[in-house]
Amino acid sequence: MPGIGVVESQRIHFNEPLHLRSGGVLPSYELAVETYGTLNAAKSNAILVCHALSGHHHLAGHYADQPNNIGWWDNIIGPGRPLDTDKFFIVGLNNPGGCHGSTGPSSINPATGKPWGADFPMVAVVDWVNAQARLADFFGIDQWAAVMGGSLGGMQALRWSITYPERVRNALVIASAPKLSAQNIAFNDVARQAILTDPDFHGGHYYEFGTRPVRGLRLARMLGHITYLSNDQMGEKFGRELRNNAFSFDFDVEFEVESYLRYQGDKFAGYFDANTYLLMTKALDYFDPARLDDGDLVRTMARTHTDTNFLVASFTTDWRFSPARSREIVAALLANGRKVSYAEIDLNYGHDSFLMEDAHYHGLVGAFLGNIKL
């Protein structure tokens, strides 16, 4: 099926201060946003897509002057695709704290006239959801037909169903978890340490020194990328293949998997902001909506609306957000008598499976969304 073609983004300014869970305040802020499809007269056909750690507002299509810059979830959005733009109005945004056009650490702090840098306040998933609620108000959307996302995006969809239950008719929580495991927090901390100890980090104010902690960000991405893939996929794709068919007995790139990881690290470090990476991983660590209920997820999910439909999906080879974590969400929803469908999908791409084009996976999402009455 053809995609949606050329798209444009917009920046929407909000003057009302955004009070954050950390106690910090954004006196005003901008959100980078893209929309696809047409909002109907009843404003009942809107779907919010929440991005994961390194995602942003550019979900689908390409820009007129950047034909190769394809949106990160392009394979699922468009006419006749699961997120059918002939039926739905799709909204994507870059969350506050991001580095793709929304107000973040590289933006100018109005109090100093300099980039926020390390002074940008900590942000939590609930802060993003509050900002997204204001975005819904901007479009005149009282209730989303669906809120969805994978990984950290799935956490936002889950938070929406808890914090604004009356504004969500359907929630799709994909490759996600009700909170991070200790192992996941550990991975995030090692990645952050790679950045924080880079000599070019300068306490987070590297903008003022005309430099960037590229080495640290590169290592952080390499570590993260290992955890996003499955062992089987890495074995099939790279095995123990050598680039030059022989050992070189040095510390340069020898194995194909090393070449791949260094390429991914260099690519990511070339465009992503290190302070944003720190903020995003901390938001992941902090996410635990059941914390105020003494860890009782059943009590927390009782706050969801009785009429909200849930689709929870996991992937068999995802060891970073394993199917067991998704089943925790399902069990808590079922304990409250909520309407939930669960899919455990056999795909070989590890955590990255939620980004892949697969007929069975896309068929499940399409069938769920196809049942939405507008």
From TrEMBL:
<keyword id="KW-0963">Cytoplasm</keyword>
<dbReference type="GO" id="GO:0009086">
    <property type="term" value="P:methionine biosynthetic process"/>
</dbReference>
<comment type="subunit">
    <text>Homodimer.</text>
</comment>
<dbReference type="GO" id="GO:0004414">
    <property type="term" value="F:homoserine O-acetyltransferase activity"/>
</dbReference>
<feature type="active site">
    <location>
        <position position="318"/>
    </location>
</feature>
<comment type="similarity">
    <text>Belongs to the AB hydrolase superfamily. MetX family.</text>
</comment>
<dbReference type="InterPro" id="IPR008220">
    <property type="entry name" value="HAT_MetX-like"/>
</dbReference>
<keyword id="KW-0012">Acyltransferase</keyword>
<dbReference type="GO" id="GO:0005737">
    <property type="term" value="C:cytoplasm"/>
</dbReference>
<comment type="pathway">
    <text>Amino-acid biosynthesis; L-methionine biosynthesis via de novo pathway; O-succinyl-L-homoserine from L-homoserine: step 1/1.</text>
</comment>
<feature type="active site" description="Nucleophile">
    <location>
        <position position="151"/>
    </location>
</feature>
<protein>
    <recommendedName>
        <fullName>Homoserine O-succinyltransferase</fullName>
        <ecNumber>2.3.1.46</ecNumber>
    </recommendedName>
</protein>
<dbReference type="Pfam" id="PF00561">
    <property type="entry name" value="Abhydrolase_1"/>
</dbReference>
<dbReference type="GO" id="GO:0009092">
    <property type="term" value="P:homoserine metabolic process"/>
</dbReference>
<dbReference type="InterPro" id="IPR029058">
    <property type="entry name" value="AB_hydrolase_fold"/>
</dbReference>
<feature type="site" description="Important for acyl-CoA specificity">
    <location>
        <position position="320"/>
    </location>
</feature>
<feature type="binding site">
    <location>
        <position position="221"/>
    </location>
    <ligand>
        <name>substrate</name>
    </ligand>
</feature>
<keyword id="KW-0028">Amino-acid biosynthesis</keyword>
<feature type="binding site">
    <location>
        <position position="352"/>
    </location>
    <ligand>
        <name>substrate</name>
    </ligand>
</feature>
<dbReference type="GO" id="GO:0008899">
    <property type="term" value="F:homoserine O-succinyltransferase activity"/>
</dbReference>
<feature type="domain" description="AB hydrolase-1">
    <location>
        <begin position="45"/>
        <end position="355"/>
    </location>
</feature>
<feature type="active site">
    <location>
        <position position="351"/>
    </location>
</feature>
<keyword id="KW-0808">Transferase</keyword>
<dbReference type="InterPro" id="IPR000073">
    <property type="entry name" value="AB_hydrolase_1"/>
</dbReference>
<keyword id="KW-0486">Methionine biosynthesis</keyword>
<comment type="function">
    <text>Transfers a succinyl group from succinyl-CoA to L-homoserine, forming succinyl-L-homoserine.</text>
</comment>
